[in-house]
Amino acid sequence: MAYFKCPVCRKITSTHFDLARHYLGQTDKKHKEWLKTQDLSYARLITMQVTEFGNKGYDALAKVLKKEAPEVEMP
Amino acid sequence: MSEYSIIGKPTPNVDGPAKVTGEGQYTFDMTLPNMLYGKLLRSPYPHAKIISIDTSEAERLPGVKAIITGKDTPGGKWGLWRRFRELADQQALAMDKVRFIGDPLAAVAATTEEIAEEALDLIEVEYEQLPAVFNPLEAIKDDAPMVHDDFPNNINATRHIEWGDVDKGFKEADYVREDRYVLEAAHPCAMEVHNTLASYDKGTGRLTVWTSTGSPYFVQVNLAEALKIREGDVRVIKPHVGGHYGGKNSTMPDAVNAAILSMKTGRPVKIVFNRDEEFTTTEHRTGQHMALKIGLKKDGTIVAFEVKTITNGGAYTGLGATTLYLTGTFITMPYKIPNYRYDGVRAYTNIVWGTSIRGFGAVPGKFCRETQLDRAARDLGIDPLEIRRRNAVEPGYEAPGQYKFESCGIMPCIDKMQERIKTKWPKVGKDEGIGYSAFAYMSGGIFNWIHTPYAFSSAHIKVNIDGTVDLYSQAADVGQGHNTVAAMICAEELGIGIEDIRLHLGDTAHAYTDLGAWGSRETLMNGNAIKDAAAQVKDVLISIARLKLGENIAYDLVAKNKRIYLELRPERGFSYYDIVKDAIKANDGVPLTGTGHYTPHNKGMISPAYGMGIMATKAKVDRETGHVEVQDVLIVHDCGQVINPLGARGQVEGSVHMGLGYGLCEEMPMDQGMLLNPSFVDYKILRQRDMPPIETLEVPTYEPNGPFGAKEAAEATIAPAAPSMANAVFQACGAEFFSNVLKPEKVLNAVKEAEKKAKRTRKSTRKGTRKAK
């Protein structure tokens, strides 16, 4: 089974989608600042997720995390 | 099974005589020798930096004994979300900036209320106004003003719930519709305002607080955090409470500042909010934006459901984060939904904060879902009651990873409704309609945001030599009748009378922990703890009786009607009172005791049990004025085994009153963060004469997780009131509503819109008919 690590707090999930879910659930500055380094806006992602039907915010972030959060060994 | 002696019998409220004669003590009634009166200075701005506070002139006013500002407080932050410390965001007095109109920033203690108020006028504050944000959709933008510096984008909490394959579900649906709603905020409007009397003993370092609260335990732990003292040094006593309705879960600045002023002066201090403060600075039902997408098969079966919400959180958290989560779960109940997705965001804004008002998490969402379902039923040509039946859950239904219904009477409720409607309302007149709404609600929450290490509920009983029973618990009667229910459960288990029970509830010094009255939890959770405690004593009494009888150990004994006897030979037994005497003697003269507790385990994420049912409202619309006349209400209700039918009926009718107010007239309009109707002259609630007749039919079920099979009866019936009324109007004239308050102007517009739509439909039908010819 594949595991992926949050680039900010090292939380481990089994899919990039779940990692995106975790990520947008965090309200602290560190997570939000990392998004800026990826040219992403927390506000835009969360607005997409909660105002448009579907998982658009999570999907957009999961796409970036696929590149930035490679597979890791389960500790 | 033998019939109960007490459970299920209509029982007058044990507090009734004290309350109706005026002898019952509320915090408001209490005074202590040498007592001072406290008042709070509040911000006139929604968002401003505090540059300076000059209290010198106020301090010189004769009669003023103490003035404190943020720097004089211990500075501890508190909140109900202790599990995530960053969400414990309340403070006694604003330190650096104020976050809403009414945020307190100084407190005065004086010999009279008048002097304290005069002193407030003499305090000079220099503010630097900051840009403010009032709309949650604006608040989450990157360039929005930050209400709390640690929360960029003002995101206070987010929630995502998903099960099944939602996108696939929508693809498989024959019919899909989307609707967007704006739900208004509403105030709980308790008769008794927030008020606290605090008395600090400098000698012992202990603080005693009498306060109007739903949870003495919450106040105890929050005061300990705010004051940076030990929990054990804080005693909280809850006298009679004149209404809670969800607005008295959070510890508010009255309690904390009365305590600080008492610590500073060494004298008791009492703070009583006035009605304006109650409206403008205490918690309300959250306003929110919701979007719903539903997919159904042609036969009306729901195959996919998706919900999005943004709530206008206000300046602090309270129980708002919990409300956000519950919105995402209660909006699915009591229907079978194979594929479901929910996203919610709670945004901080510069208004007073929204929280857990009666039926929290259920009321706005059910308005949206039930009105949407009626539109879907119309489009699919299905009877509105029938579409609810086709989707109703059955016993054992489980929402993956979220909740499970054990007892579940929704189907029998719908059947009974259908039968009763035939005779109750055989015909509807012109511009009249019957609207339905199904509902379900928790019997106490499983979530432990308060992060208590204690059992969720506990109770202790002591049986005295004369057979009287002292029952101790921190459980709270807030007007919902829990004192009566507690006495009934204890008496039933011991087989004695209610008059034998002496209640000692709502005092943190005298009992083990109970988390208090919220989420309809006391009957099930405290009831289980009481039953557990009483059962321990009953076992001892039965053992003594068995020894005295010298009967075969296989013969069962029961405790009932103040006797303990052989179940199959009732004539062979003893008086309860005689056995108690023998048992205490046999116990080396020590009164008999039992300590019970209850914490739910393996019951999902929400609650161990759910009350549920269906409500029908008959209403008439005046097409000229837009006035909606609610003519009659019928509720068919499953609350498990009814403990006290009188109390349950009172709870149902009270909930319907609040729910109809939410649907007809209650709202909290604001201008730049200022509430425009902070009084009962301007804030409209329904009066008794505005209320329709209410008929309640109970469908008894047996809830395996509840005491004697009981479950929630206090809150479920608030949520269906507004949508069943809106659906009645929809059935009467086709008017559709996307917001909850059906004021005449809104109804008139909706009626006109419906008439235009009907005209367009008739035209296109005629065209279609001509083409067909």
List unreliable stretches of 5+ residues of chain B.
none
* Name of the CATH class of the largest domain in chain B: Alpha Beta
Which radius of gyration of chain A do the C-alpha atoms yield?
A: 12 Å
What class would the helix/strand composition of chain A place it in?
Answer: mainly alpha
Q: Could you tell me how far the N terminus lies from the C terminus of chain B, measured between alpha carbons in angstroms?
A: 70 Å
CATH architecture name of the largest domain in chain B: 2-Layer Sandwich
Unreliable spans of chain A? none
Overall mean pLDDT score of chain B? Answer: 96
The CATH superfamily of the largest domain in chain B appears as Aldehyde oxidase/xanthine dehydrogenase, molybdopterin binding domain
Report helical residue fraction of chain A: 40-55%
Q: Find the count of extended strands of chain B (DSSP E, 2+ residues).
A: 32
Query: What is the 3D shape of chain A?
Result: globular
Q: What kind of sheet is the major sheet of chain B? A: 7 strands, mixed
Taking all Cα atoms into account, the compactness measure Rg of chain B is 28 Å
Shape of chain B: globular
* Percentage of residues in strands of chain B: 25-35%
Structural class of chain B: alpha+beta
Short key terms for the protein model shown above:
heterodimer; A: 75 residues; mainly alpha; three-stranded antiparallel beta sheet; globular; B: 773 residues; alpha+beta; Aldehyde Oxidoreductase, domain 3; Aldehyde Oxidoreductase, domain 4; 4 domains; seven-stranded mixed beta sheet; five-stranded mixed beta sheet; 18 helices
